[in-house]
Amino acid sequence: MNRFSIAMLRLAVIAAFLGGLFGQIVVAPNVVSEGVYSAFYGDYNELRPYVIAYTTVAILGIACVQVGLFALWRLLAMISSGAIFSLKAFRWLDAIIGASLGATVLAFGMALHLTFDVVPFSRENTMEALSMLGGSVVGVGVGLAFALLMTIMRGLLRKATDLETEMAEVV
User: Fold this and answer.
1) 136 near 108, Cβ under 8 Å?
2) Residue 89 near residue 78, CB atoms below 8 Å
3) Which of 101, 106, 117, 108 is nearest to 136 (CA)?
4) Once rounded to an integer, what is the mean pLDDT over residues 42-60?
5) Biggest alpha carbon–alpha carbon distance for the chain
6) Residue 116's pLDDT band (boundaries 50, 70, 90)?
7) What are the residue boundaries of the structural domains of the chain, listed by start?
């Protein structure tokens, strides 16, 4: 990878990480306050007991993304130094896979809770509950697809590392 691509990726990682910090420090806690709660949720009084729990899950979900971003930063550093074909790179790929699975589980658990406990199926809100369930299924699909993609990339890195080790032995 050339220096420009790595620099642009690092800028994107910094921007995403700082955006996540803003979400954790400013946005998520302010949802708990009455004024922001009313603006976001309107008359959904059934959500009132869960605001702190949902805020905590949102902060933890953002933390999972930040763990993945930090691991990506470390991988970019390994690429810059030419050490990407080492066993240390697998630790960072495993961190990305774990963080994506953690965020997926948090989001899916919250969506299931919303769908089946907070907004249960009834004649008045069947479409609302079905749309939340559909959205959660799509979200889980995206999260699992990303984790599987990283698992495939891990396998490719394993093969490339093995080939590099073989080539070093030959030379």
Assistant:
1) yes
2) yes
3) 108
4) 77
5) 73
6) confident
7) 3-170
